[in-house]
Write a structure and sequence with these properties.
738 residues; alpha/beta; six-stranded parallel beta sheet
Length: 738
Amino acid sequence: MKDLLLITPPFTQLNTPYPATAYIKGFLNTKGISAFQMDLGIEVILELFSKEGLTAMFSTYNLQPTTHNPERIYSLKEDYIKTIDALIAFLQGKNSSFARQICSGNFLPEASRFSQLDDMEWAFGTMGMQDKAKHLATLYLEDLSDFIVECVDENFGFSRYAERLGRSANSFDELYNHLQSEPTYIDKITLKILKDRVAEVQPKLVCFSVPFPGNLYSAFRCAQFIKTHFSKIKIAMGGGFPNTELRELKDNRVFEFFDFITLDDGELPIELLHQYVINNFENLCEISMNLSETNEFKRTFLLQNKEVTYINNSKRQDYKQSEVGTPDYSDLQLQNYISVIEIANPMHSLWSDGRWNKLTMAHGCYWGKCTFCDISLDYIKLYEPIAAKILVDRMEELIAQTGENGFHFVDEAAPPALMREVALEIIKRRLVVSWWTNIRFEKSFTSDLCVLLKASGCIAVSGGLEVASDRLLELIKKGVTVEQVAQVTRNFTESGIMVHAYLMYGYPTQTVQETVDSLEMVRQLFELGILQSGFWHQFAMTAHSPVGMFPEEFGVIPEQNTITFANNDINFKDKTGINHDKFSFGLKKSLFNYMHGICFDYDLQDWFDFKIPNTKIPSDYIVSCLEKETDFNIKPSAKIVWIGGKPTSETFTKSKKGNSWEMTKLTFHDKTETFDISLEKDKADWLVITLEKISVYGESKSTFTQLKSDFETHFEDFELFWYSKSIATLRGFGLLVL
């Protein structure tokens, strides 16, 4: 029995929990508030994709499918029922030897999704057997998903459910009407699991975290069920969807389902809701709230006198990031998440393959200027970094709690300076972790910083290249140029860190020529191997972005709608009159091939079934960006850090023209190589002592100025020493300027 039940409604991810409820539960722990959390999505998936689940589905829906593909799947139903449990166990990491059976061929039933394999056998050369088996198993699941969509429940999707009902729903009418109909097949599975859990936990307050439009319908359906069958329980909604979409809520029918809807950071609003519900639980009537002036709420919608009312009367400040505690993943079925690989690309698969503990380095965005972004909302606007030591403490706590040492920092854009400090702290503590995050491709990511990040366990970064056009990047206020992006992606790639780029087309005033030129830039980045993965998004105008708030400044004309429910995506007309939709297929098809390392020699026209102009970008443009000389000037305040080991030394005598002097050969061993440098003995002695002082494992760090000053108390001409061949060798093996 717990006070709160925290629920992520279907569906988000298959491979790892969406972190919102874990964040909230971690905070509630610091307040001594009891809570149970569940990812309803993964529980529904596992119920459906099981021997019993498929048997029930196929027997209940003994239809005559209208097209060949579902007819084939239905004919092979016994093969699906026979193999499903073993296949799910394999994807859960419980049956690794099963990969050989999957890869042997003629084992899994195959429908239309497998037809793409004819074009993809070459891709498996870069994948191990486990990954190939995961990819084949993913195609098998996608075939079943196609059958469900066509014959069982048209709203089904592995990472979303009834998403259409949540997208741009300015009015609540369509969703409300849908909720008056009989529960769907997926609803029935969902509600059965929900009923059992609510009866078990007996909460007084159920909180739904709704991150995306694809979770919205299920949240309402579940809330409706609780209202009907557990009428005393109060129900709240928070999360990314209400934070961005429900800020102008007016329709009081929403409160037939929910008692409270909170906005922005959830910690303090939920603490106050808990206080209100627990203190008044026996007296709360079903229709209206018993409110008095002493009741405190933080950014909360509720129904008062049959009117939607927004109350933000608490004078308490939101909690600092250092005060919210470590995310708590207990209660979640961590061992049962399933890893899938949709595309044979190592970077692209990070989103769907593997279990990741999710953390945040900083609240908000340190840049906060991009014109397509919701920079007016608190989740972007209020920037607050967390101290590196606290972050790494939380990493250690999560490793102990979950048994997993993979981390996904889910920042809007992780700050480079904080990434550096986190990396230093990870290395200093000798932690073995793998981590990745979202960044801006800014010049702070030098070659040396990338080497440090890799040494700490960073395996990948994702960032917004958006439109690969300097004019549009300036209009977006991205703060980067294509040249800068090329240099930074090169630095990451050369250090062994994979790079994914978010790409955009259809930005206001973007011309057809700029779209073609942007594709050519992307082609060159992939051909040179400095970009490993990407995804094209068509520009969407949102209500809380500068483009949405000041459309006239960007040459767009928004459609005017009456808002009573959701308000985020705004339909608009671009004054250029260009139909950007038609570029979607060609951009995505070309990128799919580039991600697999092929078709770089295709003419750009080959990707489109309509005439496009020739690109104006020189074929060596990105190469020329990378050939520009690096600035060798080092900031006096730059930290000098040694991440290598302690050398062995050997003294010898060197003679020249009758003169002799003592030299020392220093031999270093790194993970893959052994190398040595030779210096005059006194300089070698100084270097050995200095490397120990500036070691990443030590307490103190030296700046470039301090290093120079210390050298010059013993010797002359620091510049000659610093830029010598010996130091250049060390720079290539872990002597870093940060």
